[in-house]
Amino acid sequence: MKQLKEIIFCALLFLLTGCAHQELSGKKEYFSKEGVEYSFNLPTGWNGQEDYQEQYNEAAVFGAQDTTSNSYMFIRVRGIEEPKKNTLEKKAEKLVKESFGVEPASSKKLTLDNQPALRFSFKYLFKQKPVWVSAYYILQKQHLVEYIFYTPQDNQESRRTTVFDQSVATLKLEHTTETTSKQSPEKLNKIENDSYVFDLTGYKIVSENKQQNLLIVRYVFKNKSEVKKSANLLETLVTVKQDDKVLENSPITEHTQAEDLAYLLENGKQLIGKNDSIESAVVYKLNDQSLSNIIFLFDKEQFKGQKEIIMPIKN
Predict the structure, then answer these.
(1) Which of 28, 51, 76, 182 has the greatest number of C-beta atoms within 10 Å?
(2) CA distance 252 to 272
């Protein structure tokens, strides 16, 4: 009888192990940043997307969607100056607050192939629908890799999170290529003085009825002053021109393609304290069908010596 029980136990263990393994796709997915290539395995039933930057974030390096539920994910890779384990939690909490405008209540520490990692879980709105966010931050030698999963708020959250843990655990550095770039585009689009920092992280042009008519700019605002300020301060400190004409702000609700950025516009209204940061966006009306470059000019008193920023129209 004892031997029979051992056989049954081993069989069950084999089946459970096999089921867990089948939760992930056997196909490797790849993404890269600054000459460093990474790979990982998506959960079974998930497919990579080509328009992930438009869907989620202009700084994204990978995006995917679940074919069986309204679930989505994307990956960002951030540079790090001092990759120390004891600074990961503080850095990750700051990024969650910047990106989502929420204070993460709790986190779970993970160890993935000897690399420290954190997972934050919280409720949020994505594309005007309530979702559960699983945000992972994995410290690598060269970068901080960020996974963001959006899933429906239902009774499958716990099971999905287990699978997401398994997927993130497959993250692997494939190879590194030396780069010769002296300064990254991110640094070129950073505007700073003694009181504020505006880091323009990405932009895109959306159109309706085949007309280019909207410029959406995403940015991270950091308040260095003693007085609480909101990110939409940018709108009073910058003049945006096209064809020598000043561009006007546009209400996001007028354009269906930009609805998913409503939460970023709300972020822009929040007052934040000294040394706090938050991600936001601003939307401008473009001159009809113009293909001229867009020029960003900054307040000369507030940003002395700041050069203009030129954003080319993407065809």
Answers:
(1) 76
(2) 23
Residue 246 to residue 235: CA distance in whole angstroms: 12
Burial, 182: exposed, middle or buried (Cβ in 10 Å; 0-12, 13-18, 19+)?
exposed
The amino acid occupying position 26 is G
* Residue 262 identity: A
Provide the pLDDT for residue 3.
55
**Which sign, positive or negative, has the C-alpha torsion 263, 234, 311, 246?**
positive
Rounded-to-integer distance, Cα 111 and Cα 94, Å: 20
Using the Cα atoms of residue 208, residue 210, residue 212 and residue 216 in order, give the sign of their dihedral.
positive
User: What CA–CA distance (Å, rounded) separates 260 from 43?
Assistant: 25
* Other C-beta atoms lying within 10 Å of the C-beta of residue 172: 14
Enclosing H/E stretch for 264 = helix 262-267
Q: What strands, in cross-sheet order, belong to the sheet with 211-223?
A: 190-192, 196-208, 211-223, 277-285
Q: Supply the pTM of this predicted model.
A: 0.61
